[in-house]
Amino acid sequence: TDPSGASRIPPQFSEEERVAVKEALKGAIQIPTVSFSHEKSNTTALAEFGEYIRKVFPTVFHSSLIQHEVVANYSHLFTVQGSDSSLQPYMLMAHFDVVPASEEGWEVPPFSGLERDGFIHGRGTLDNKNSVMAILQALELLLIRNYRPRRSFFIALGHDEEVSGTKGARTISALLQARGVRLAFLVDEGSFILEDFIPNLKKPFAMISVSEKGALDLMLRVDMTPGHSSAPPKETSIGILSAAVSRLEQTPMPNMFGSGPMKKALKLLANEFPFPANLVLNNLWLFRPLVSRLMERNPVTNALVRTTTAVTIFNAGVKVNVIPPFAQATINFRIHPSQTVHEVLELVKNIVADDRVQLHVLRSFEPLPISPSDAQAMGYQLLQQTIQSVFPEVNIVVPGICIANTDSRHYTNITNGIYLFNPVFLNSQGFSSIHGINEKISVQNYENQVKFIFELIQNADTYKEPVPHLHEL
Ligand SMILES: CCCCCCCC/C=C\CCCCCCCC(=O)N[C@@H](CCCCN)C(=O)O
Ligand SMILES: [Zn+2]
Ligand SMILES: [Zn+2]
């Protein structure tokens, strides 16, 4: 029994349960819930996934405490009724659609869910069926043990995150808003317990992302009168556009190192480094230019310090002897939380500096606001506390930013506490497997993820507001 009087259930699972836990994940991986594009997804698999979770989590689906709704045809919303309605609810999120995977380059077929050398292999084992299954699994195990939550919570499982979540997450968010729901916080994918990302930093550390980058998809286009290639103009639309694109690649957006949540992260990490890196990081007033340049060296740390520029589509030309009538390129900018869409557009105009190049905004959205990570921030504190109890070997927890986008961005209307964190150890090889080849999760890691959520739900029920220090009164 804990100090609040609620009985605490230890995170211990029988041999039989442990087998069922991993088998349930394998079965989920075998359903090819692929989002190909906004228009095309494997809807048969999405529907089959709904049947599958009903089958493997019967207690969740039959509990009188839980209301289950299918939203936008395939997404799932669970409302878990807590016993104390004075406590503000929270939400756990994940998505079960995946990006496509051809068999090429994979050690085992991507939709096999095979277990080999202690790992479960397949598309979605890290992004993000592991979370979908772990959330439902932890709840199933708690309910089997007759656990009755005190604090109400929601579980939102999206079916179209990989193509923006405009059907699933956006509809669920509108539904909750219409019901007058205000969340204390939510937890979604987007960050991990990181290992071997930073040279010299041997110990793993947990990064809870408290903001997420914005995005700008910009189309650059040059139009020109077509004609015979035997008498070409000095520059073609292709030449003009290529030069503009090249200027953008050669002129990275400003380095924002030292601003935003990463400032606090570096402070917390500084003493984990051996000499002389610890000295350098503890004296950023002197070494800021050096460290900010070091961050630029690697694509992942570079993405943490600036708005990134990725030229992803280039189309031009019709025939070898025709002056091309137009050339167009699409650039995907990921906007640092210390910048805005407008600022990035102004910078782009100045770098392109050529009136013949038209700029068309295809899609844009601002970075997410920064969620609190101070001592009063319940979501952050609960995650930190649960990390420390489930992973005693992780002694540093830092706030960070998510360099990609998640479904959580659709929920800024109902909460100020958006935390992106999956309790899974990830090294740079694991990072490359997300949307890449040989995505896999160790059985141990997956079991710990279930354990983590099992503990998080109980911790949310017993959370005590910290007593403010005298000087804050
Ligand atoms: C201090 C140094 C160490 C930093 C290491 C950072 C490592 C970053 C770790 C994890 C990032 C993984 C993010 C996983 C979520 C991926 C979500 C995703 O792919 N979203 C898509 C959404 C597409 C929507 C359609 N446009 C995306 O962002 O493209
Ligand atoms: Zn994902
Ligand atoms: Zn993804």
UniProtKB/TrEMBL annotation:
Keyword vocabulary terms for this entry? Hydrolase, Metal-binding, Protease, Signal, Zinc
Query: Can the keyword Hydrolase be found in this entry's annotation?
Result: yes
Pfam families attached here?
A: M20_dimer, Peptidase_M20
Question: Which pathway does the protein contribute to?
Answer: Lipid metabolism; fatty acid metabolism; Amino-acid metabolism
What's a GO cellular component annotated to this UniProt protein? extracellular space
Please report which protein family the annotation says this sequence is part of.
Belongs to the peptidase M20A family.
GO biological process entries? adaptive thermogenesis; amide biosynthetic process; amide catabolic process; amino acid metabolic process; energy homeostasis; lipid metabolic process; proteolysis
Q: Where are the transmembrane segments?
A: none
| Classification via CDD domains | M20_yscS
Q: Which reaction does it catalyse?
A: N-(5Z,8Z,11Z,14Z)-eicosatetraenoyl-glycine + H2O = (5Z,8Z,11Z,14Z)-eicosatetraenoate + glycine; L-phenylalanine + (9Z)-octadecenoate = N-(9Z-octadecenoyl)-L-phenylalanine + H2O; N-(5Z,8Z,11Z,14Z-eicosatetraenoyl)-L-serine + H2O = (5Z,8Z,11Z,14Z)-eicosatetraenoate + L-serine; N-(9Z-octadecenoyl)-L-tyrosine + H2O = L-tyrosine + (9Z)-octadecenoate
* Peptidase M20 dimerisation domain: residues covered: 211-354
Its domain of life reads: Eukaryota
Q: Which Enzyme Commission number(s) are on file for it?
A: 3.5.1.114, 3.5.1.14
For whether the record's keyword set contains Transport, the answer is no
The entry's protein name is N-fatty-acyl-amino acid synthase/hydrolase PM20D1
InterPro entries in alphabetical order: Bact_exopeptidase_dim_dom, Pept_M20A, Peptidase_M20, Peptidase_M20_dimer
Q: Name one GO molecular function term.
A: metal ion binding
Q: What does this protein do?
A: Secreted enzyme that regulates the endogenous N-fatty acyl amino acid (NAAs) tissue and circulating levels by functioning as a bidirectional NAA synthase/hydrolase. It condenses free fatty acids and free amino acids to generate NAAs and bidirectionally catalyzes the reverse hydrolysis reaction. Some of these NAAs stimulate oxidative metabolism via mitochondrial uncoupling, increasing energy expenditure in a UPC1-independent manner. Thereby, this secreted protein may indirectly regulate whole body energy expenditure.
Organism of derivation: Peromyscus maniculatus bairdii
